[in-house]
Write a structure and sequence with these properties.
The complex is a heterodimer of chains A (285) and B (369).
Chain A: H1 6-34, H2 38-42, H3 55-62, E1 64-66, E2 71-73, H4 76-107, H5 113-122, H6 128-142, H7 148-173, H8 176-184, H9 189-218, H10 221-226, H11 234-237, E3 242-243, E4 246-247, H12 249-275
Antiparallel strand pairs in A: 1-2, 3-4
Helix pairs in contact in A: 1-12, 3-12, 4-7, 4-9, 5-7, 7-9, 8-9, 9-12
Chain B: E1 4-13, E2 16-26, E3 31-35, H1 42-50, E4 57-62, E5 65-66, E6 77-80, H2 92-102, H3 107-120, H4 136-148, E7 154-158, H5 166-183, E8 186-191, H6 194-200, E9 203-208, E10 211-216, H7 218-223, H8 228-233, E11 240-244, E12 247-249, E13 252-257, E14 260-264, E15 276-280, E16 285-288, E17 294-303, E18 307-313, E19 319-325, E20 334-340, E21 345-349, H9 363-368
Parallel strand pairs in B: 3-8, 3-9, 6-7, 7-8
Antiparallel strand pairs in B: 1-2, 1-4, 4-5, 9-10, 11-15, 12-13, 13-14, 15-21, 16-20, 17-18, 17-20, 18-19
Helix pairs in contact in B: 2-3, 2-4
Classes of the chains: A mainly alpha (285), B alpha+beta (369).
Chain lengths: 285, 369
């Protein structure tokens, strides 16, 4: 890194700029769209010059979708709330179940442990549609259809394997000697888990939790089939913007901005935990 | 009350037998050095005692009571790991304090205990640093302090000087014996360094191939090594090993070197005519002016700080190392004569590699059998 020729440095900067542009431009464009009316969005050729308006946001928050033909009500804020409840709930449950399980798989090799861990991972292989039909029938007879509990349960298919396998790797990276040392010092196994294993795997748990949150937040199929209007998250709720009287680009953009904001903020906040040094120099390699 | 006994301990990982029947007895308050090449299972044995690993069979007794069913946190052991195993997210103070917090001491007791042991090990100025900010020597002392702070009756030290620099290792080798005897604990100390073993151990147990192949005082191990391998592991420069066939006649038992007789213990008569290996410590050889010594040719001399090592060859071009204190007069080159102190010569059976005891019985062979 320190020994780069000027040319190398310029090329590197250009490459980085291209990558950033590639990934950030759509977001930037959506933000711009959300501040325009449908007319300015659709004019040809497109132009960056416009008078910003917060009408789209106002409409979304008020729940009234106005088009030039008619006005209809939407529950986008309700959808957003559902997304938060479902994502937070399923990640929290997956952490409570997955982190101790990951620790068990990492530290205690018992008969069949690999098989169980692999079975859990295999939940990720199956296309969701494969399980949806039977699940729908089961859920209807169990009374779980269209409940938060039922949805959070199904979301474990997404979150649990992810957290289990990522966190397991982090636990395995902790030198068992550190835990042995704590045990021999006189602490019980649970204290060792809480005071040694959990803090040391903290960045990994944060990363896995964040990833699981994003996957849960972006889920579409499970919620589409298993939830009706009042439990739908934003991914499904966004369908309402495609109306008979045309597509409301400005409002969709505003809705998108509002629905990516939580994950984006969460990622920015979690960043410092993610980059925090994992091996803090306790064990000489 | 803190004697360590190990009875027929067996441990294997999958198909690999690491320990196959270990018996050890460490009397209360004494230090046993567990010595052996890497991969011999020293660390595994230590972990079995600490409870970090469960043995397949056999028993560990601390103070006369079996601890097989006792969890590691209740065994009352202090242990220092080879890789230090400090808690990376805690300060040195909290690291050292952890055995005391586990024992539900008051804040005041903990502070006093930590500060006392930190002063003893000269790390009291870095107590608020995290392990990352400590030098290797400080890490090693922190790990040692953590093992010592609760004044355990049983102390297991797994090659604690392995990962520290030479200067510190030398210092600690001088300090540790006093430190350990002050503790009054029963100590098992693992090392691969024969100097450490000789300096620290009341007894040394040599572990190799899953067995204790010799258990004796440092003196015994050095002067009467049970096998050729042990003879080679102890001593620097290493012992001279020469293939000989002892001859027994009216004047006693002898071996030939450079056409001169080397008188051997008469008890070795039974091995006359058999293929043996003669072990001669480099420091048991010395130059002599007398012409009845063994004639050799000086090839090279390597000066060390405290000694000089000379490489000489016999008439049949066999190489022998000779060590003498630096500054003592010695011929520089050419053909010279050396004398050998026969009491320092050890004879091994070439086939089995076991030492032949001149006093009739072949103890080493019996022990192995």
């Amino acid at each position: 890194m320190d020994h780069m020729s000027p040319l190398e440095r310029i090329l590197r900067a250009v490459a980085l700029a291209l990558v950033v542009l590639f990934f950030m431009f759509p977001i930037f464009w959506i933000v711009l769209m959300s501040l325009q009316t449908n007319e300015t969005i659709l004019r040809s050729p497109p132009s960056m010059a416009f008078v910003p308006t917060f009408k789209n946001y106002a409409a979304i928050i008020a729940g009234r979708l106005d088009s030039n033909v008619a006005s209809m009500s939407i529950q986008f804020m309700g959808n957003l709330m559902n997304s938060v409840i479902l994502s937070v709930g399923s990640v929290a449950l997956a952490l409570v179940l997955g982190v101790p399980a990951a620790y068990a798989f990492a530290r205690h090799k018992f008969k069949g442990s690999e098989d169980i861990a692999f079975t859990l991972l295999s939940f990720r292989f199956a296309p969701p549609l494969l399980v949806l039909l039977p699940l729908t029938l089961y859920f209807q007879s169990l009374g779980l259809a269209n409940t938060y509990v039922g949805l959070i349960w199904v979301y474990q298919l997404i979150c649990l394997p992810l957290i289990l396998w990522i966190v397991r790797g982090y636990f395995e990276d902790i030198s068992p000697d550190i835990e042995h040392a704590y045990r021999i010092a006189g602490h019980g196994w649970f204290a060792t888990f809480r005071k040694i294993a959990l803090p040391l795997a903290g960045p990994g748990i944060a990363a896995a939790g964040l990833l699981a949150f994003i996957f849960a937040w972006n889920n579409f199929v499970f919620a589409l089939v298993l939830a009706s209007a009042d439990k739908q998250p934003v991914t499904v709720g966004a369908l309402a913007f495609v109306t008979a009287s045309g597509i409301q680009y400005g409002q969709i953009a505003a809705a998108i901005v509002m629905s990516i904001a939580p994950t984006l903020l969460l990622a920015l906040w979690a960043q410092k935990y993610l980059v925090e040094g994992l091996s803090l120099g306790a064990v000489k390699g | 009350m803190s004697r360590i006994e190990i009875r027929n301990l067996v441990k294997s990982f999958k198909e690999d037998a690491v320990l196959s029947g270990i018996d050890l007895d460490v009397p209360q308050g004494s230090t046993l050095v567990l010595f052996g090449p890497s991969g011999a299972g020293k660390t595994v044995l230590l972990r079995c005692i600490a409870g970090a690993i469960e043995p397949d069979s056999g028993d560990v007794l601390l103070g006369g009571a079996s601890v097989s069913d006792v969890l590691p946190e209740h065994r009352g052991i202090g242990m220092a790991f080879q890789n230090f195993a400090l808690f990376p997210h805690m300060s040195a103070y909290d690291n050292i304090a952890s055995p005391l917090t586990a024992r539900k001491k008051t804040g005041d007791q903990i502070r006093k205990g930590v500060e006392a042991v930190a002063r003893l090990l000269k790390i009291d100025h870095v107590l608020d640093h995290t392990p990352k900010a400590l030098s290797n020597g400080q890490k090693q002392r922190t790990a040692l302090a953590r093992a010592l702070v609760s004044e355990p009756k049983v102390l297991l030290l797994d090659d604690p000087l392995r990962n520290v620099d030479a200067k510190l290792r030398f210092e600690m080798r001088l300090e540790l014996p006093r430190l350990l005897s002050d503790q009054g604990a029963t100590v098992i100390y693992v090392t691969q360094d024969y100097r450490e073993a000789m300096a620290l151990g009341d007894r040394i147990a040599v572990l190799d191939g899953g067995h204790i192949i010799q258990n004796g005082t440092p003196e015994e191990i050095y002067r009467k090594p049970a096998t050729i391998n042990i003879a080679k592991l102890f001593g620097d420069p290493t012992i001279n090993l020469l293939d000989v066939i002892p001859v027994s006649d009216a004047s006693g038992v002898h071996a030939m070197l450079s056409d001169r007789r080397i008188q051997l213990d008469p008890g070795l008569a039974g091995y006359a005519g058999k293929e043996c290996v003669l072990g001669l410590r480099p420091e048991a050889l010395s130059f002599t002016d007398a012409s009845d010594g063994v004639p050799v040719t000086i090839e090279a001399e390597t000066p060390f700080n405290e000694k000089s090592v000379t490489l000489v060859t016999t008439l049949r071009k066999r190489e022998i190392l000779l060590s003498r204190p630096s500054g003592t007069p010695a011929p520089e080159s050419g053909t010279v004569h050396i004398t050998i102190d026969p009491s320092d010569a050890v004879l091994f059976d070439r086939e089995t590699g076991l030492r032949i005891d001149p006093n009739g019985s072949n103890q080493a062979a019996e022990r192995a059998a």
